Amino acid sequence: MIDKFLLIAVFHVVVVAPLLLWVGFNRAATPDWIYNIMFGMGIIVLIYHGYKSAARWLAASPALWINLIHVALIAPLLLWIGYYAKKTERPAYDMLLLLGFGAFGYHLYKVVIMSQTFVKPLEV
Q1: Which of 60, 53, 55, 106 is nearest to 75 (CA)?
Q2: How far apart are CA 79 and CA 44, in angstroms?
Q3: CA dihedral 46, 111, 81, 51 (to 10 degrees)
């Protein structure tokens, strides 16, 4: 069985980070339909991580910070860029690039660390 945290990390490396970076680099040249996707992603991220934040707060989970970052930084930025579309100012795109590079690096690191647990050392 595949670890769900590994799937989440791979999803962020393969889908999320490239999308954030692509939009961040293309800025106003981004097609209109991508802005609609970003707005929808913002709503989904806000609802899902808002719920998870509440649940982790009540459980006093040390992983609460992950959900709070999504609620406080990522969801509002996705909603902002999705709403303003081609009228979005440069600082929002720069923040999107920052989050894209950060997500790629962090989750790629997690993939490498988690994949090491699947490799069994050779016995001599």
Answers
A1: 53
A2: 10
A3: 0
Given this model, what pLDDT does residue 2 score? 79
Residue 39 and residue 83 in contact, taking contact as beta carbons nearer than 8 Å: yes
Confidence at residue 4, expressed as pLDDT on a 0 to 100 scale: 92
pLDDT means per 10 residues, the chain with 124 residues, are 90 98 97 97 98 97 97 98 97 98 97 81 69
For the chain, the C-alpha Rg in angstroms (whole number) is 17
**What is the C-alpha to C-alpha distance for residues 93 and 90, in angstroms, rounded to an integer?**
5
Two structure tokens written together for 48? 């899902």
Q: End-to-end distance of the chain based on CA atoms, in angstroms?
A: 28
pTM exceeds 0.85: yes
**Residue 36, C-beta contacts closer than 8 angstroms, at least 6 positions apart:** 82
